[in-house]
Amino acid sequence: HNGVRTAIARVPLAPGLRLSRLKKLKVGWAVCRIKELTPRHGCARCSSTEHETAKCEGPELRACFKCKKVGHLIASCSSPSPTAGNHRADKPATGSSQTQ
């Protein structure tokens, strides 16, 4: 991660404008760059910039996060859990305080 992290903060307009003029902000020991997040417009379903997701009639291009297949999303996925049958599923993570 190269020591770089990202945070998004929603702030009222006036303080947000003041923050954006600062360009940097000290948080603890870190000095963080500040930039305004521009809203993304377009369709999350088919990636078109011609319409919004609610009005999409194009093909579904989003893939299920669980099985990586197009045509359904994780809420309706019937694939087994990725850790099912995995030999690591019943072992503690390396460096954890759990013992077997």
UniProtKB/TrEMBL annotation:
Any one GO MF annotation of this record: nucleic acid binding
Region: Disordered, residue numbers: 77-100
CCHC-type domain span: 62-78
Gene3D superfamilies: Zinc finger, CCHC-type
Pfam families, per the entry: zf-CCHC
Identification of the protein by name: CCHC-type domain-containing protein
Organism expressing this protein natively: Sipha flava (yellow sugarcane aphid)
